[in-house]
Amino acid sequence: QSQRAAALGVLFALIMLLIIYSSGSGSEVFPYSRLRGRARRPPDLKKWGVKSGYLPVCGNKTLTAHCHQCVIVTSSSHLLGTRLGTAIDRAECTIRMNDAPTTGYEVDVGNKTSFRVVAHSSLYRVLKRPQEFVNKTPETIFIFWGPPAKMQKSLLKIIQRVSASFPNMTAYVVSPSRMKQFDDLFRGETGKDREKSRSWLSTGWFTMVIAVELCDAVHVYGMVPP
């Protein structure tokens, strides 16, 4: 017991010395003060401005859409067998991605499509099936995204030709300035430069950010944890 008491006494003395030293030197045991002001607030995507971020494929009509409640329906097969189609169609706005179809899967994924976000790599798969993606839901607004160098050349011309063939098609492309904002957002959230790290931003990532811009509330169907 005497040895235990002595050990406790030594430990107490060391703690007291540490406290006295810290208070006397004016320094902190853990430098909390250095971390003050470093906490990064997430950007307010609502302030980006939808009108300046999306360029009309034809004409000069700006994107002014706004929804109070949106659902994102992913291209995941996890929705098969869920019978969530009715719940999805009840949403004010429904956002789908790339060439994910609804025909034949209405019971699980619904039928309504307010927006369809399409990557440059999926462009041909979407445009070669106009009966599924254009004529079936003429109210759909298409948002095409891709590297500015590609979008400003041949791909944009292809989209323009298709839009001319289908007057009811409303399409926009993500502007170069908005693409830069997406890159800056990625860098701020991950600490990595997208180009230097050779990272690839998925359509799901773009769709999430676009949904936050357009919608007050967002519900996601079919996205599973990584």
UniProtKB/TrEMBL annotation:
Catalytic activity: N-acetyl-alpha-neuraminosyl-(2->3)-beta-D-galactosyl-(1->3)-N-acetyl-beta-D-glucosaminyl-(1->3)-beta-D-galactosyl-(1->4)-beta-D-glucosyl-(1<->1')-N-acyl-sphing-4-enine + CMP-N-acetyl-beta-neuraminate = N-acetyl-alpha-neuraminosyl-(2->3)-beta-D-galactosyl-(1->3)-[N-acetyl-alpha-neuraminosyl-(2->6)]-N-acetyl-beta-D-glucosaminyl-(1->3)-beta-D-galactosyl-(1->4)-beta-D-glucosyl-(1<->1')-N-acyl-sphing-4-enine + CMP + H(+); a globoside MSGG + CMP-N-acetyl-beta-neuraminate = a globoside DSGG + CMP + H(+); a ganglioside GT1b (d18:1(4E)) + CMP-N-acetyl-beta-neuraminate = a ganglioside GQ1balpha (d18:1(4E)) + CMP + H(+); a ganglioside GM1b (d18:1(4E)) + CMP-N-acetyl-beta-neuraminate = a ganglioside GD1alpha (d18:1(4E)) + CMP + H(+)
A Pfam family of this chain: Glyco_transf_29
Location of this chain's protein in the cell: Golgi apparatus membrane
Membrane topology: Single-pass type II membrane protein
GO CC terms: Golgi membrane
Transmembrane helix found in the keyword field: yes
Domain of life: Eukaryota
Protein name: Alpha-N-acetylgalactosaminide alpha-2,6-sialyltransferase 6
Organism, scientific name: Aptenodytes forsteri
Lineage of the species this protein comes from: Eukaryota, Metazoa, Chordata, Craniata, Vertebrata
